[in-house]
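> forwarded from #structure-qc
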């Protein structure tokens, strides 16, 4: 089954809740792709020997990898870290995450600045294009194990909104207005 994504409600309830609108409005993978979000469904049970993962990493130049366990027991200042992850921001590079265990939410902005929630579960690998406004939180299970991938050395810099003059944001918006998939267009450069 593919990743689940939906338009979020505007309530101020706990960020770890699903935040479905009433009625629920789901988002297709095609619509996510129009925003530059790339997606693969892989088998997380043997990620060390996964040929499909190896090919994705090779094809897209993801040479750096590390693993992150996010849960109250393993992260100092857990609540503060979660709050930081949930602050809306962009990056100058793609954000690549592969869920190996547990679950969590990536929220992204669409062309009309509405929040879309992407529920990542084991086997989901997503690529958020450079320049897309996004944030992350765990769900109510409070646990996720993620593989983080990067092209070259990891860059952890988050630029909190507003960032309309950031080069990555300008390029992302240009791709959206020219109706070119940002993930494909930015990768081609």
């Amino acid at each position: 089954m593919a990743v689940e994504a939906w338009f979020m409600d505007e309530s101020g309830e706990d960020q770890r809740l699903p935040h479905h609108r009433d009625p629920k409005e789901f988002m297709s993978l095609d619509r996510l792709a129009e925003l530059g979000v790339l997606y693969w469904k892989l088998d997380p049970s043997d990620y060390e020997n996964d040929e499909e993962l190896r090919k994705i990493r090779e094809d897209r130049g993801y040479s750096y990898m590390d693993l992150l366990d996010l849960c109250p027991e393993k992260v100092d200042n857990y609540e503060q870290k979660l709050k930081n992850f949930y602050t809306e921001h962009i990056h100058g590079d793609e954000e690549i995450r592969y869920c190996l265990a547990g679950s969590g939410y990536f929220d992204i902005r669409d062309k009309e600045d509405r929040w879309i929630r992407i529920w990542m579960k084991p086997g989901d690998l997503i690529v958020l294009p450079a320049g897309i406004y996004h944030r992350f939180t765990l769900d109510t299970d409070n646990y996720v194990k993620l593989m983080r991938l990067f092209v070259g050395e990891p860059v952890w810099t988050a630029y909190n909104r507003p960032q309309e003059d950031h080069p990555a944001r300008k390029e992302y918006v240009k791709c959206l207005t020219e109706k070119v998939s940002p993930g494909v267009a930015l990768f081609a450069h």
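QC bot note: Residues 4-168 form a domain with the Jelly Rolls fold (CATH 2.60.120.10). The chain is about 20% helix and 30% strand.
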